[in-house]
């Protein structure tokens, strides 16, 4: 479970404060300074609020308070960096990971400023780490507040895992499901790396890597991020640079995808015939365009032949066309005006 807080200053068309809660990478709660409301994002959360009627109001009040705190904090940090105007962002990420098989718990909390780490909590030493000189003042202040340290530790190691278990229990049918992905090989051009792309899997606890002769590769490999899909599933990709690999050695490579809770791995052999490329898409476009043009030409030819055939039949029987009567027929279809 993770919570992300974002406070901004000088950023147009964006709320001054946003808070988002995620369970297994799925958003389940949302709050921002525009709505000032704690919004439930999953249907199963309604069962929790039925058992805990004060849940919504309690968390709304908490976050309204956090909103004011972060609004003040961003001004303090700006002063530390000798900044007055411009766009600036303070972020906080905190939460915990609970392994339902081993029972292991890992808590974390850290703040960032303008996209860089500002201060990080070390749960093992029960102290704060200041990567930036401007954060040293905050580190000393928080380290000396032993009551706050104990409170943070208790939340990250006790309360947070308890809430994870509670959320998982309410959202069991959704959060504990497993969905295996479709895996495909992609390549932009013949000189580009080959990307092993998996999409549609759930949960996000997955691993994917390239192998050679059954051994995982660490060189010439670029691991992409795990990204959410619009339907709540996830996608990920791993690129392999084959520029120095002879074509006859391609058969020695494969891509392996492993999903937590699923016994069978998905192995995709590196096969040039199975790689989808932009060239294929371009070829399909050309083929479709050619088919459309050919169809239009055929329709035009058919139209000319039909016209000539009718004209030949009418050469001795049909009266000459009358543009005036044609216009008069059009006039009959017009609605009557009030002035006539």
In a few lines, what is going on in this structure?
The protein has 340 residues and is an alpha+beta fold.
Keywords:
340 residues; alpha+beta; Murine Class I Major Histocompatibility Complex, H2-DB, Chain A, domain 1; 8-stranded antiparallel sheet; 6-stranded mixed sheet; Ig-like_dom_sf
Task: Describe it.
One of its GO terms (biological process) is immune response. Belongs to the MHC class I family. Residues 181-255 form the Ig-like domain. Residues 329-340 have a biased composition (Basic and acidic residues). The protein is 35% helix and 30% strand. By secondary structure, the protein is of the alpha+beta class. A hairpin with a 6-residue loop joins strand 9 and strand 10 (194-201). The protein is globular and about 65 Å long.
- Give the low-pLDDT segments: 280-286, 313-340
The chain-level mean pLDDT equals 86
Q: Please tell me the CATH architecture of the largest domain by its name.
A: 2-Layer Sandwich
What topology, given as strand order, has the largest sheet? 4-3-2-1-5-6-7-8
Report the CATH C-level class of the largest domain: Alpha Beta
The count of strands amounts to 18
- The total count of helices amounts to 7
Give the N-terminus to C-terminus distance in angstroms. Answer: 75 Å
Give the % helix: 25-40%
Q: Going by CATH, what is the homologous superfamily of the largest domain? A: MHC class I-like antigen recognition-like
The overall number of domains is 2
* Radius of gyration, CA atoms, in whole angstroms: 32 Å
Beta-sheet strand percentage? 25-35%
SSE arrangement, N to C: EEEEHHEEEEHHHEEEEEEEEEEHH
- The general outline is globular
Transmembrane segments: 283-307
Biased composition (Basic and acidic residues): 329-340
Pfam families: C1-set (PF07654), MHC_I (PF00129)
Domain Ig-like: 181-255
